[in-house]
Structures are given as C-alpha cells and as structure tokens.
Design goal:
Elements (H helix, E strand, L loop, with lengths): L1 H17 L4 H8 L4 H15 L3 E6 L3 E2 L7 E2 L3 E6 L15 H10 L3 E11 L5 E5 L4 E4 L12 E6 L5 E5 L5 E6 L2
Antiparallel strand pairs: 1-4, 2-3, 5-6, 5-8, 6-7, 7-10, 8-9, 9-10
Helix pairs in contact: 2-3
Length: 179
C-alpha cells in the first residue's frame, strides 16, 4: 500500500519538476522596462520550457509479500501534450479597435417609450410591455408603481444592464429585456 501511494505521488509531482523555470531568467525578463520587449522575453522563456509531447511510463512496481510471491501494484502511463496554437487575428478589424469602440459609444444609450401593459408577478416584480413591442422584466426587488400610459426611460447601465425610470422621477429599477 505504501508503494502505491509513492507511485501516485511520483506520477503527480513529476510534471511539476519538468516545467520549472529558471528564476534568474524570470527576474531578467521582469527587469525590462519596455512592454513589447518584456513580453517577447517572457514568450521566449515559455517557448523554451514547453515540450510538444512527452510521455512518462511506469510499467510496473512489484512488492514482495511475506509468502514469496510477487504482485503488481500499479501500471500507469502519463502523456502530456502541450502544442501551441497560433492566435487567430481578425484582419478585417485589426487596427480599427478604437473606431469600433467609438461606434459602440455612438449607439443609443437610452430609449423613451410609453407603457402599454403592466403585469406583476412574484414578489411584486413587474413586467412591462412598451408601445414599441419590447417587454422588460424587473430584476431587483424594490417596488415601483407603473400604470398604462406612463412614459418610461430605459438607460444602459454598467456591465450590460439596464435601468428603468418613470419620466420626471429620479427613482430607477434594474430591468432585463424579455423579448
């Protein structure tokens, strides 16, 4: 049993000893001030330490019991494949990242619509149908009284979320688009 534990420990820790990186080389790369050259140095270190394929094989470990017979404890094969795939670059938008971001900022950040229908579900959370056909469901737990023909404003908020408020009111409720 002890030898089985030793074999398992050897199999799990062997990969760590192969992938060790020289700390002096890491410190040398970290000391480089220019971002591009520092990244290139780290990339070179990574490519030197990666092996495309390695196979470690332990065929058998034998233990001699007290009765004189031998028995096989473990047979294991460890194969690790670390192949590097080149990054795919979208050549249509390469170099245009800032213009794409500016186009996204130009999009509408809010809409104004009239409430056609209001339904209240569990915990008094509302689902609103607007005159433009959109449906929005409340996702927070605070109450807001809405009636048909109320004018609401839905603003884009952080992390792709939306806030609904009545016109001429400062109170907002977090909503999610249903359809």
């Amino acid at each position: 049993m002890k030898k089985l534990i030793i074999v398992v420990m050897l199999l799990t820790t062997h990969g760590y000893s192969i992938g060790q990186v020289d700390s002096h080389a890491l410190a040398k790369c970290a000391a480089i001030q220019q971002n591009d050259k520092r990244l290139e140095c780290f990339d070179q270190l990574a490519s030197l330490k990666s092996e495309p394929e390695r196979e470690n094989k332990i065929t058998s470990v034998a233990e001699k019991p007290t009765d004189g017979s031998t028995s096989t404890i473990a047979t294991a094969t460890v194969t690790s494949t670390a192949s590097r795939q080149p990054l795919s670059i979208n050549t249509d938008t390469f170099g245009k990242e800032n213009s794409v971001l500016q186009e996204l900022k130009k999009q509408e950040t809010s809409i104004t619509a009239t409430v056609v229908k209001v339904t209240y579900g569990a915990y008094k959370k509302f689902t609103v149908t607007l005159d433009n056909g959109q449906r929005w469901k409340q996702s927070d737990s605070r109450r807001l009284r809405l009636k048909p023909n109320d004018t609401v404003i839905i603003n884009r908020a952080a992390l792709n979320s939306f806030l609904l408020k009545k016109q001429n009111s400062n109170s907002t409720r977090r909503v999610k688009r249903v359809d």
